[in-house]
């Protein structure tokens, strides 16, 4: 058999056993090989539109993603390696050059020669969102650990971009090199990136750190932002931690900005400069128009004492509630809607029927129990929550399987686990790729 060039070779990432030599290789043929060691082939995966340029394996060593010249990523289950279990749709319009899986195995990202980035669920490969970088070349990609909350993107023109790893919202951008971006590697602690350019220069981008020790027992940790509907600590919610290790803040000139939008959004409770901490996924209801809220910003220092590290607050949450100049009591901030001069893209979105009452809707006998979101734009995301802020289901509205644009999307009144939802009031939020958002309510009656 003629030798072929090797495009990619990776070890199984989750193993800590030095005797574990399992690896995956891909070359110019249509075959990807899985090896138990460098001499023994376990499986051969046939990729119909090879060659394969991108490979990754999940941390548990159960799933493999392959992608390449055909513009489609395929997900293989090693216990059933004879055909891919899932594949991305629609395919990229250019060859895929990189594919990465988050360490927690919930999402993957792909990028192609046209510079497009797409974010997918994993392993079932449902499209979440996409971004065009505007450059006709594939960027370098790295997810942060452990949950992929931040996606680092190093572009061919030398810019480093940081995206939300859950929805591809751009956080920050910085020019690293004028000689182009050629390589990117993220340190395991997520605080340092090694970026290589066309002149052979490697830049270490540091997020900073605050790690107190016996020799230096106190350091500045950062700030925490809290919110409550009354000016006390009972029921106060931690919205955000801004520390040296957090790169997800936006810049306004030399200042950092924080937005608490009038919506229900997914947020990640970030660790405070602790490489061992795992972010806690939480859902917090955003502020609602006309409701007064009190915000507190507390500085915290990190102290080392008797082998442990503690956060110490120079001023308490109560002392740090915002006060208007000259006031001695905390000042409430009341969000209010802004007026619009034209009808928004989502101005006519409705839910039919509203309320939905079981047994009274004629179409239930034909299509099963469901409601419809109507007057939708061609592409939109529909997030459904309880009034308490718990996420029930997310629907992705797009063209149908035949490429036909639709203005309606149905929901079968089941949650993400497939269980029928309870009777009650539900909140829906419709978001367009351009960032327009509308929110409404509907009722379900059993």
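^ Assign residues to that structure.
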């Amino acid at each position: 058999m003629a030798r072929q060039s090797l495009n990619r070779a990776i070890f199984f990432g989750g193993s800590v056993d030095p005797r574990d030599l399992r690896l995956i290789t891909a070359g110019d043929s249509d075959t990807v090989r899985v090896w138990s060691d460098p001499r023994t082939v376990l499986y051969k995966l046939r990729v119909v539109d090879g060659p394969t340029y991108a490979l990754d394996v999940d941390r548990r060593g159960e799933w493999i993603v392959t992608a390449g010249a055909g513009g489609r990523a395929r997900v293989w289950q090693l216990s059933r390696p004879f055909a891919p279990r899932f594949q991305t749709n629609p395919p990229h319009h250019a060859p895929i050059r990189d594919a990465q899986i988050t360490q927690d195995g919930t999402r993957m990202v792909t990028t192609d020669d046209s510079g497009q980035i797409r974010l997918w669920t994993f392993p079932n490969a449902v499209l979440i969102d996409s971004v065009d970088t505007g450059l006709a070349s594939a960027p370098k990609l790295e997810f942060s650990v452990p949950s992929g909350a931040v996606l680092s993107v190093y572009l061919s023109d030398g810019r480093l971009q940081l995206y939300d790893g859950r929805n591809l919202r751009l956080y920050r951008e910085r020019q690293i090199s004028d000689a182009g971006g050629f390589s990117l590697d993220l340190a395991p602690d997520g605080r340092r990136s090694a970026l290589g350019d066309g002149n052979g220069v490697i830049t270490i981008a540091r997020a900073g750190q605050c790690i107190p020790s016996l020799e230096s027992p106190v350091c500045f940790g950062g700030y925490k932002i809290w919110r409550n509907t009354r000016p006390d600590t009972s029921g106060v919610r931690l919205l955000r931690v801004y520390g040296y290790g957090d790169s997800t803040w936006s810049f306004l000139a030399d200042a950092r900005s924080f937005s608490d939008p009038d919506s229900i959004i997914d947020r990640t409770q970030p660790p405070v400069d602790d490489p061992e901490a795992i972010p806690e996924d939480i859902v917090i209801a955003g502020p609602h128009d006309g409701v007064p809220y009190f915000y507190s910003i507390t500085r915290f220092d990190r102290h080392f004492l008797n082998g442990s590290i503690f956060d110490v607050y120079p001023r308490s949450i109560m002392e740090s509630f915002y006060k208007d100049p000259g006031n001695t009591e905390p000042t409430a901030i009341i969000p209010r809607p802004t007026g619009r001069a034209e009808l928004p893209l989502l101005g006519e979105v409705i839910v039919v029927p509203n309320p939905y009452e079981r047994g009274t809707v004629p179409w239930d006998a034909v299509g099963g129990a469901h409601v419809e979101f109507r007057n939708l734009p061609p592409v939109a995301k529909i997030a459904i929550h309880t009034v308490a802020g718990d996420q029930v289901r997310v629907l992705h509205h797009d063209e149908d399987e035949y490429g036909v644009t639709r203005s309606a999307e149905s929901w079968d009144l089941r949650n993400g686990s497939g269980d029928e939802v309870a009777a009650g009031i539900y909140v829906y939020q419709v978001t367009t790729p351009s960032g327009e958002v509308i929110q409404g309510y509907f009722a379900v009656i059993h």
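The longest strand covers residues 294-305.
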